[in-house]
Write a structure and sequence with these properties.
With 125 residues, the chain is an all-beta fold. The chain is built from no helices and nine strands.
Length: 125
């Protein structure tokens, strides 16, 4: 939990070739869901999408605003690509220059991180 922290990170990660992860953030009933999904396809156009939020709030703690979202795709052959976003939700198509895990290629991993900065207590917003 955050309890007075200046920053807060939400991180999702999964192994390929098909990626999927979700995480609920907050305290019920004030939760927000983050979702990651994607797929690497052998020597072809692959994709990912992230569904996050521009702001998250924690009752009795305060409001956090998105600073950036970061995506990293890597595989066990040493290949990696990364992307940075300044919105909570995003989608990307990209070329994957390897066999996918399902076709005997190197094992792949997709990680998404949403980084938030503390804005202030909820009473001022």
């Amino acid at each position: 939990m955050v309890y007075g922290a200046d920053t807060y990170d939400v991180v999702l990660s999964d192994s390929g070739p098909t990626f999927y992860a979700t995480k609920n953030v907050g305290i019920w009933p004030f939760t927000q869901t983050f979702k990651m999904q994607g797929k690497v396809i052998s020597y072809s156009t692959s994709w990912y999408s992230g569904s996050g939020h521009s702001q998250i709030s924690f009752p009795f703690v305060g409001l956090y605003s998105l600073d950036y979202a970061y995506v990293r795709l890597s595989n066990s052959a040493g290949f990696y690509r990364s992307w940075t976003y300044h919105q909570g939700s995003f989608t990307c198509n990209f070329y994957y220059p390897y066999l996918s895990d399902a076709d005997g290629g190197p094992s792949s991993k997709l990680t998404m991180k949403w980084h938030y900065e503390f804005v202030g207590d909820l009473g001022s917003y």
